[in-house]
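Two quick folds needed for the group meeting slides. Do the first one here.
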Amino acid sequence: MLPPLLVAALSLPVHAQGRWKDIGKTSSGNSVYVDPRSVKTVNGIVTARVRVRFEPPVQTPQGAWTTSQHLAMFDCAKSTIAVKESVYYINEKTNKVAERKVNAQPGYGPALKGSLSQVALDYLCKK
């Protein structure tokens, strides 16, 4: 059984836990965040968990996506990214997931200008 204090901490909304650092906005005005504790660099490749809050939510057949989180690798020397995992939330606070994708063999590609990946690449690879 978990201690009551740990249960209370785990039940706090994601933004209230102070886990995410605001790193900018996409070209459409969506806020982009990085989990500073997730940032690791090995052989010039930066791996980090990034998040975007959709303002307004994106309407899909599964429901309205309010946020998404991505575990990605950033090759700063080549300015490319590879996404290992993506999770799209209908309600992140209650952990209601609309879609989860895990790439068994992620491939690197360019970041689209103004996108979440470009904002994260610029932040994580600044010199």
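Then this one, please, same format:
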Amino acid sequence: MASSASDPRRDCAPIARELARVAFPWDTTRSLELALFRTFASPRIGGLLHATQEFEARPQKRYDDTDLIVSEIIEHGYDSDRGRRAIARMNAIHARFKIANCSTRRCSRRSGSSRLHHGSSAR
């Protein structure tokens, strides 16, 4: 359990785990659903999903696979062996599509990374 002495930078993984599993499990599930909805609604990603027929053919599989990968990261931390493998697997699955981080949100032209990296910070 996260204590008042927790350091947000140092203890971010256990804090996230506590919030997702104990404090806000219902909200965490809704957050995943809304995040997927927002992603699928972006013109670039929606078009890609339509072109590959992934969302029409296997919508539950898309949700379940995403849930499994995100759960691995939350449960074990992004800096654990299992967390790093989950991130690597997610990047490998999506690598052939050349999806930039900017595909699902507004961002500046300066954003260059197209993959999730261990230790990356949200902007």
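Slide caption for protein two: The chain has one domain: 12-103.
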